Amino acid sequence: GLPLISAMDFLKFAGGLAEQYGGGGGGGGGGGGAPEDDFDPVARSEEAIPADVRMFSGCQDQQTSADVHDVQSFGLPENVGPGGAGGACTNSMIATLSANPNISWLELLQKMQVMLKQKGYSQIPQLSGSRSLDMGQQVQINTQEGGNLRSLLVGINYVGQKGELRGCVNDVLVMKQYLVSQGFPEDDSNMRILVDDPNVSPLEPNYSNIVEGFRWLVEGAGPADSLFFHYSGHGGQLPDDDGDEKDGMDETIIPVDYRSAGQMRDDTIFEKLIAPLPKGCHLTCVMDCCHSGTVMDLPYMFKADGETMEQIFQDGEEGPPAFTPNMTMNPAFSWEKVGAVAMKVWDVYQGGGSVQDMGAAVTQFFF
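Given the sequence above, the corresponding structure tokens read:
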């Protein structure tokens, strides 16, 4: 089941939704139906996902993300990473941040897009979150609030398998150096690395180790903590198996043992990594993989497509923004899914169930 703090937070959320859906309990008033007219998605999203979560994805859901033969063409500083192959998203991001340490989220997306376009890549980096982020806010993965700094880095080259990649382990090494420069400790108790290269880490990026890595990252997380998750590898899509995706597809990440263990669905990532985090905790994620636009199912997003960026940067790609937007509600975010989970928890609570029973109800929904 879910940790105690997450189960209790979700119970408060469930009670609120019960009032909105059906007058406060009992049989749940209709389960996962549409909210009432006075339904407040901002307040409800903050209750459903108490933590401040931001996900930087390498491309939109329908796009693929490039594996680059030689990342030195991105202009990385000489002391950043091993060189050679790498992901276009990770390396354009680190090159931009290295050259512009005080950059805003909007400017980071814009400069990355310009860099990728100049090098012939069509992928469009995206930003989503649990809150409506001011895109003019400075990029900050270490909030300097005095809490713990922990990171989980996963890179998979699929050595010897069909679809072998070349740069994902290098991506992890590049990201590791950037995190250390931002104050993140690199000792084993605060940074965990999963790669399919025993010379870098003995921990393989298989399904069970990734799930265990999520548990390790969120365990004991506090309100002032800054957490970081980086994934570089294959991403995919599978037919939605629970009716919660408006496009009919679940986005996935692909562990090294996917042939036997299967792909990891976005529902699982949400349940294991996002849902347990407490209010006030900060989590930044970088997903350098195909089909990653909504792989964490977060309620807010900034759609950084060509039309949007042209409206903002009216003086050209290198010009200053004409205005600074905020994130907007993600149209693909499923309140039906969240409502269904909440009502199931509420029914368990109304029936006298324990916190463990409520956690089990949530886990059963996701599996």
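The two ends are 11 Å apart (CA to CA). Try to locate this feature in the token string yourself.
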